[in-house]
Write a structure and sequence with these properties.
By secondary structure, this protein is an all-alpha fold. It is built from 14 helices and no strands. The protein is globular and about 50 Å long.
Length: 275
């Protein structure tokens, strides 16, 4: 039974990573007509309504965790979306993957998690793979401060989920997270940019419903059974999925070094699942 629960959790996190990986190209295209903060606001607003509908009014015990999760996720979203103005979808997905190194460190410091030395080795192996995937874009990798801040925000979000998810109503927790994210956007949004053209509505609905609602529900569901370091490695498949989508839809070309990086990421995930 326990093994089946872990398998379901792992599958949920992998599916979540697939949805996250599909985000980059959608956001990149929307940035031609929307500011980063407007995109983030719309994603959060849609998710807030959906989580309120499915979970109802949040209880008092979800407020503090939801606020902390919402704050760190908002930092990650805004900086990642801002970074996509000047970097490729693949590079953004890859640099964001730095959170797989930061997550076990933050988990150890904040949650006092006992992790085996192998967990740190697997995380470093995964990041080495991500580094190789982006090895044809060194200037973007080291120069994209926004995306590095994004990775920090995502790592802290995963650690906050690990800290608070036990015995919590996922939908109520996610409503608070989404509401906080939308509220933080309000002082910076530009109402004149909002458009109801079908070519904008469908991508925004995809981001709000499939990503901010479904993918984050799957992430929290999965993190009920696995620790933050394992979750971060599984979610790093987001970079692989972003890579595949970039190849299929943007015509990106990978060299041998890039493919070696893909292999290292997959190997690190395989090894941590076997733990």
């Amino acid at each position: 039974m326990i093994k089946n629960k872990k398998t379901l959790a792992v599958s949920s996190l992998i599916l979540s990573a697939l949805f996250f990986g599909g985000t980059f190209i959608v956001v990149k295209n929307l940035l031609d007509n929307f500011s980063p903060i407007n995109i983030v606001f719309l994603r959060y607003a849609i998710a807030s309504l959906l989580f309120l509908f499915t979970g109802g009014i949040p209880t008092k015990k979800t407020i503090k965790p939801g606020i902390l999760m919402g704050l760190f996720l908002w930092i990650g979203y805004v900086t990642q979306t801002q970074g996509l103005l000047t970097t490729s979808t693949i590079n953004s997905g890859v640099v964001t993957g730095f959170y797989i190194v930061l997550t076990p460190i933050f988990s150890k410091i904040i949650n006092k998690t006992n992790l085996s030395p192998r967990s740190y080795i697997f995380s470093l192996t995964g990041f080495m793979g991500i580094f190789l995937i982006a090895s044809n874009s060194y200037d973007q990798l080291f120069g994209n401060l926004f995306t590095l801040v994004c990775a920090t925000g995502y790592a802290l979000h995963i650690v906050m989920v690990e800290r608070y998810i036990k015995n919590q109503n996922i939908s109520q927790l996610m409503f608070v997270q989404s509401f906080v994210g939308a509220a933080l956007c309000l002082p910076f949004i530009n109402p004149s940019q909002f458009s109801f053209k079908i070519e904008y509505v469908l991508p925004i609905l995809f981001l709000g419903f499939i990503v901010n609602f479904a993918a984050f529900y799957l992430q929290l569901f999965g993190q009920k059974e696995v620790n933050a370091a394992t979750a971060a490695l599984l979610l790093s498949l987001e970079a692989i999925f972003a890579l595949i989508i970039g190849i299929l839809y943007v015509g990106e070309i990978l060299n041998f070094t890039n493919w070696a990086g893909v292999f290292l990421v997959l190997l690190s995930i395989f090894l941590i699942i076997r733990e």
